[in-house]
Amino acid sequence: MATLNDTYNAKPLRQETAAGAGAQLALLALLGTALGLGPAGWLTGLVFALATWAVLNRAVSRSWLRSFGAANRVTLARATLVGGVTALVADSFQSPPQVTVLVALTAVALILDAVDGKVARRTGTASPLGARFDMEVDAFLILVLSVYVATSLGPWVLLIGGMRYAFVVVSRFLPWLRGSLPPSTARKTVAALQGVALLAAGAAILPRPVALAEVLLALALLSWSFTRDIGWLWHTRQQRAEG
Fold first, then answer.
1. Which residues contact 150 (CB under 8 A, 6 or more apart)?
2. Spatial distance between the Cα atoms of 26 and 141, rounded to a whole number of angstroms
3. What are the start-end ranges of the H helices in the chain?
4. What does the alpha-carbon distance between residue 57 and residue 45 come to, in Å, rounded to a whole number?
5. Which of 64, 158, 159, 160 has the maximum number of C-beta atoms within 10 A of its C-beta?
6. Are 193 and 168 in contact (CB under 8 A)?
7. Burial code of 116-148, b = ≥16 C-beta within 10 A, e = fewer?
C-alpha cells in the first residue's frame, strides 16, 4: 500500500517537471522563430532542457514531497529562462549576440531569484530540494554568463563561474568540505552580486575599463567568500578532531 501511495504522489511531481520541459521547448521555439536561433543554440538549449528534466525528475521522485509547491514553480520558471540564456550564449559563438534579449532574460531570472525564497517561507513550503534546486540554477546562470563575458574581457572571467564547481570537485576528495555552513547574509549578497556584475558587463553599456573593474571586484569578493567558508569548515573540522 505504501508503494502504491508513493507512486500516486510522485505522479503530479513528474507532471510539473514535464511542464517545465515543455515551457523550455516553447521558449526555444520562440527564440528560434523571432531571432533565427542557429544549430548551436538549438542543440545547447535542447540538451539543457533534457538534462534539467532528467535531473529534476529524479530528484523530486526521491524527495517525498507531497506537492511541487509555488516556490519550486518560480525556480522552474527561472531555470527555463536560464535555458534561453544558455542557448543565446551558445548561438553567440556562431552569429552576432542578441544582447537585448539575453539581457532581458537574465534580468528577469535574477529578479525572480529574490522571489522563490520568499514564496517558500511565506507558504511554509521550504525544502532541501527547493534550496538545492535554487542554488543549482543560480550557479549555472553564473557559469553561462561568465562564458559570455569571457569572450570580451578574457578567459579569467571563467573563474567566477567555475569556482563553485571546482569546490564541488575538490570536496569529493576532501569530505570535510561537504560540511554544513551557517547561514550568512554576506555569502548570499556576494553570490547575488556575481549575476549583477556579469549582467552589467555583458550588456555592453559600460566602458571597458569600468566593466573590467567591476567584474574584477566581483571575483575578489567571491574569492573572499569562498576562502572564508573554507576557513570556517577547516576550523570546525579541527575542533571536532580535538574533541
1. 156, 157, 158
2. 19
3. 2-35, 39-61, 70-91, 99-123, 128-153, 158-173, 185-202, 208-242
4. 18
5. 160
6. no
7. bbebbeeeebbeebbeebbebbbbbbbbbbbbb
Read off the pTM: 0.92
Compute the distance between CA of residue 71 and CA of residue 126 in angstroms, rounded to an integer.
8
Contact 88, 147 (CB under 8 A): no
CA dist., res. 48 & res. 28, Å (int): 11
C-alpha 188/C-alpha 14 separation (Å) is 30
Q: Is the pLDDT of residue 49 over 90?
A: yes
Cell numbers linked to 139 = 550557479
Cβ contact 160:194 at 8 Å: yes
Cα-to-chain-centroid distance, residue 120 = 17
Question: Tens of pLDDT along 168-203?
Answer: 999 999 999 998 899 899 999 999 999 999 999 999
**Residue positions counted in the chain:** 243
